[in-house]
Amino acid sequence: MEENKVENGGGWVLALATAAAAVVLFLPVPFAIVGEATPVEADWLEPESLATALGFGLMAAAFWLFRLRFWPKGGRESRSLRNCILLIVPQAILLRAAVEIGPATEALSWGAWPRDAWLWTPWFLTTGLAVVLLGGRFGALISLSGVAMLYLRADPGPLPLGGSLASCVAAVLMLRRAPTRSRVMRAGGGAGLILGIIAALDAGLAREPLDAVSAAALVPMGMGLMSAFMVLAILPVMEWLLGEQSDVTLVEFGSDHRLLDELKEQAPGTWHHTLNVADLSEKAAAAIGARALFCRTASFFHDIGKLKEPTIFAENIDGPSPHDSLEPRESARRIIEHVTHGLELARKHRLPQPFRDIIAEHHGVSVVRYFYAQACAQLQEGEDPESLRPAFSYPGPPPSTRESGIIALADGLEAATRSLEPGSEGELRAFVRQFIAERVAEGELKHCPLTLAELARIQESFTGWLKARGHRRPAYPKSDTSVAEGVSETVKPSEAGMALDERPALTETDPDRR
């Protein structure tokens, strides 16, 4: 039901964005600027303008058909396509402004300023925003739509059209990896360089003087760098308006945040679990084409609620368990509370809404199985175990996106395999298959748009990770001599083959301790 609402809403967005872009591009303005920089009254629409408006409508219809036939089903994917369509409107506004200002710049005496420079501005800005915010596929779509609009509205010739498309495709390729700020600047300069080469070729074929050819080669690079700077400057505003998190923001959240520092210091066991979940979810997301970097970064924050009472969670317990003196219902309540406390910390530290969704959904409405089983064992004859389920269930909601479903599976699997002995690849695959099948049977993924084919690829990714984790190093051979230069002579020969965590603790008098 929610997916249908998203699709219907996407249809309205497409219709409104198409109408707005068509109005911006083709309807006349009360006054237009002509060659003498004198405002004169513009003519009304001509048949050619109506034909180009119809062509733009057909292009928008092609967008929607592409979405229906090829685009993955799911709320996040539909929202991204909607935001891509919305970016077409500012692209049309920039293009119309360039078309209106262009004749005035030609009349001004700017030396060797390229005559087609006014057409280059929209490409870097809108394509850069699309790539950084939405990914390379959307950047390519924005580039294609821009070339189509430029051809329909101005038709500057094959070389400017080809140069605009080639420069944008180059920017998309240069930002395939997680785009940091330095990569965005390099992509802007590189895209401008490619457009400059094509513009210089166009000027050379037109037998322009040498200074004009040089300007045609250098001006696009400057525009590319300036547009990259503008993309980074307005990126926070666009993220807020469109409800997206760019890879630039994700890299910053994952590399340095106060909550992560606290988790490392106060709950080292939970931090180790978090790193494993991040690794698992990142590989699984990459295997099905989901947002791998988002999964990795969001996984870092999914258990921040454990900061309230880190020592009640198994991975942080060193010694007797505090649950030995608690009733099962109380233990479950304090375990479940890490979700609500995590949401409180997320709001306090202003984490993005998708991160909060992951915190809320990573356990779904599952049951705290260990303490639920303890409580059921204490029931009197005739009492219904189902009556206890609400007190031992997480508040939810269940995962609603592919990324949320992947993190939920990775979190549960990492915890379930902590006591798993390394086995053959077939045994590991059977264990992962059973684990995922149980989650599906319990309805934990019923609101998640993961397909059976994607779950199969996730299973293979999880199995490969478990196989790698179960790898054991051979023991070092015992020797009467030091195994490496610099080993202290006080180490006994029998200790040379020990693992590092099995060696005797260093004493205060040991020189290596200092």
Report on the architecture of this protein.
Strand 1 and strand 2 form a beta hairpin. The radius of gyration is 30 Å and the shape is elongated. It contains 18 helices and 2 strands. The longest helix is centred in the N-terminal third of the chain and has 33 residues, at 75-107. The chain is an all-alpha fold and 514 residues long. Helix 1 packs parallel to helix 3 (75-107), helix 10 (258-266) crosses helix 11 (268-288) and helix 13 runs antiparallel to helix 15. The protein is 64% helix and 1% strand. The protein has helices at residues 2-26, 47-70, 75-107, 121-134, 136-153, 158-174, 181-205, 210-242, 247-255, 258-266, 268-288, 292-301, 328-348, 353-361, 369-377, 402-416, 425-441, 452-469; strands at residues 31-33, 39-41. It has a two-stranded antiparallel sheet.
Count of DSSP-assigned helices: 18
Order of helical and strand elements: HEEHHHHHHHHHHHHHHHHH
Compute the average pLDDT.
Answer: 76
What is the gyration radius calculated from CA atoms? 30 Å
How many strand segments?
2
Report the biggest beta sheet as strand number plus sense, adding barrel if it closes: 2 strands, antiparallel
Helix/strand/pairing class, anyone?
A: mainly alpha
Morphology: elongated
